[in-house]
Specification:
Layout (H helix, E strand, L loop, with lengths): L1 E3 L4 E18 L7 E21 L2 E16 L15 E10 L8 E10 L2 E2 L7 E2 L2 E12 L2 E8 L7 E4 L8 E3 L3 E9 L3 E9 L4
Antiparallel strand pairs: 1-2, 2-3, 3-4, 4-5, 5-6, 6-9, 7-8, 9-10, 10-13, 11-12, 13-14
């Protein structure tokens, strides 16, 4: 369902209930083999807003509520949450670009991202903790010239993106530390990307 808040701003609301059948699960007669008898269900809501609030001020925001669980399986307990899927997620990215004057074309951006706790495996033996990450940007646009400084993980928080659900012993995958990316694009031909990572000292 989509609605226009005004001629520059719109919102989308979606409800879903999806069932995945014939999921591979352990054969109860021989654990060395798998059979397609499993079932998983995912249901929830998604809400998104995007557009221009004021001239030069743009926003993209979203929220999702997800319930994803095992509904049939020969090995994992029914009702276990699916691995790596957070119940709540939220994201916001907003930019403002000066529209006139000597600083016309100079812009700033701020991003906020929240991811809830997630199960690390289908047995639900451990959780990946929630995290809140902040990104930022500084950019300048003029004619066909653009230069941007994009900063990921502004406050250098420690967080985990995912885990190896099939074999947790292989570990979890951490998110990037404080990272600066410099992008220059001149006349839509010349692109230079420079990335710098700053990990937390141990």
């Amino acid at each position: 369902m989509k609605a226009d808040i005004n001629d520059r701003l719109s919102a989308t609301l979606a409800f879903y209930n999806l069932t995945r059948t014939n999921v591979l699960t352990t054969d109860p007669d021989d654990e060395r083999f798998s059979v397609q008898t499993g079932e998983q269900r995912s249901r929830g809501i998604e809400f998104d807003v995007s557009g221009e609030i004021l001239p030069g001020w743009n926003i993209v925001a979203g929220y999702a509520l997800t319930d994803a669980e095992i509904t049939e399986d020969n090995f994992f307990e029914e009702g276990n949450q699916l691995a790596g899927i957070p119940r709540h997620t939220f994201n916001l990215w907003t930019t403002y670009e000066i529209q006139s004057g000597d600083l016309q074309g100079l812009g700033f951006g701020l991003g906020l991202f929240y991811v809830d706790n997630r199960q690390g495996d289908l047995e639900n033996t451990f959780e990946l903790p929630s995290y809140f990450r902040t990104d930022a940007a500084l950019f300048y646009n003029r004619d066909n010239f653009r230069i941007a400084l994009n900063i990921s993980n502004l406050f250098n928080v420690d967080y985990f993106l995912s885990a190896n659900a099939d074999n947790p012993r292989l570990g979890v995958h951490p998110g990037d530390p404080f990272t600066i990316r410099h992008l220059r694009n001149r006349n839509n031909f010349d692109k230079i990307l420079i990335t710098m990572n700053f990990a937390n000292p141990k």
